[in-house]
Amino acid sequence: MTVLDLFAGPGGWSQGLRSMGIREVGIEIDATVCATRKAAGHATIRADVADYPTAPLRGKVTGQIGSPPCQTFSAAGLRAGNDDLPLCHQALDDLAHGNDTRAAVREACTDPRSLLVVEPLRYALDLRPEWIALEEVPAVLPLFEHTARLLSAVGYSTWTGILNAADFGLAQTRRRAILIASRTRSALPPEHTHADGGTPADLFGDGLPPWRTMGDVLGCPPAIVHTRGNHTTGGSRFPTTGPSWAVTGRARSWLLKVGSRPTATRRRLNQPASTLLFGKAMNHVAWIDADGTPIRRLALEEAAVLQGFPPGYPWAGSRTKQFQQIGNAVPPALATAVVRTLLPAALEVAA
Asked: Which alpha helices (DSSP H) does the chain contain, by range?
């Protein structure tokens, strides 16, 4: 089995597949992100997905996964992608009719990065993998629905929708648009492993456990957190084990605030985090006390664990770059849940 990971990022899909005993090869252009992947043991081709030739890959790719860059569509950005939606739809139709107009359409886009969302269709039409799984911010769902219709026309069973990563074991209510497609089985959404508040047992099973909370995951991993991030002096060092991870006895009353506005989302330790947004807002993801008093910024190790990565994951680059990688990554738990719907046979082999 060869799985091709487009816009591979630091390894969210990779970690999800690794948990099932599956390896993939990622295409990633960012040198720092490639360094993270290399340190984590994930195979990578450093290249631009939009320029990489598909011909050498024909007949070699079983599965295709990908998370096109979301900055132009994200609520945390300028949303230039909204202006470019008609052009993206045009490029999708053109590709489906064998007419590659990407260069001309890209020139017309407000933000050229918007057009990267059509690349998975180009690869899929050229390589015809057995299955496809894509992830993006919710605003991209109309483009995923369009892509799904075009894939259905060439023999794929497809499903598109919005999934909440908290329903699959992540301690974060991160909502993402998902596209699932298969040439060999019916494409179906993954079954939830958790539920808000949990569900009771019935004749059909034991019910689902409640969503995992920040306290659940930050109180368990054996790691060392430094309150000054990568700074070499000042701050405090403490293990993320037991109640000591939060430094003081007041920790049970801490809230995580995401954003700088007065209406910014606040979540208690006994709740999942809201969607973690970094980029320009990185310094505004912080712990506050119950009365709103700032305590400290969210530590890098905490952010990584809340995104579903193991403690000690080898992030490369500056502190800013590391936070950006975490915020842009697919949560591994969500990746596992999505791919599991497409690979029951592979799971049995891995088990």
From this structure: 12-18, 31-40, 80-96, 102-108, 119-127, 141-152, 214-218, 300-306, 319-328, 332-340, 344-350
Residue 303's region, left for phi above 0, alpha for psi from -120 to 50, else beta, is alpha
Write the CA distances from 81 to 6, 114, 122, 145, 150, integer angstroms: 19, 5, 19, 16, 21
In the chain, what percentage of residues exceed pLDDT 70?
Answer: 84
- Helices in 62-213 by DSSP H: which ranges? 80-96, 102-108, 119-127, 141-152
**Virtual CA dihedral for 195, 201, 205, 207, nearest 10 degrees?**
10
pLDDT digits (tens, 9 = 90+) for 289-310: 888 888 888 999 999 999 999 9
pLDDT digit string, tens, across residues 145-197:
999 999 999 999 999 999 999 999 999 999 999 999 999 999 999 999 999 99
User: In angstroms, rounded to a whole number, what is the distance separating the alpha carbons of residues 48 and 29?
Assistant: 5
The answer to whether the CB of 187 falls within 8 A of the CB of 181 is yes
Taking the model in full, what pTM does it have?
Answer: 0.88
Which of 157, 156, 159, 147 has the alpha carbon at shortest distance from 96?
A: 147
Domain ranges of the chain: 3-195+329-350, 214-327
What is the b/e burial string over 281-307, where b = at least 16 CB atoms within 10 angstroms of the residue's CB? bbebbbbbeeeeeebebbbbbbbbbbb
Architecture label for domain 3-195+329-350: 3-Layer(aba) Sandwich (3.40)
**pLDDT tens digits along 69-80:** 877 776 655 566
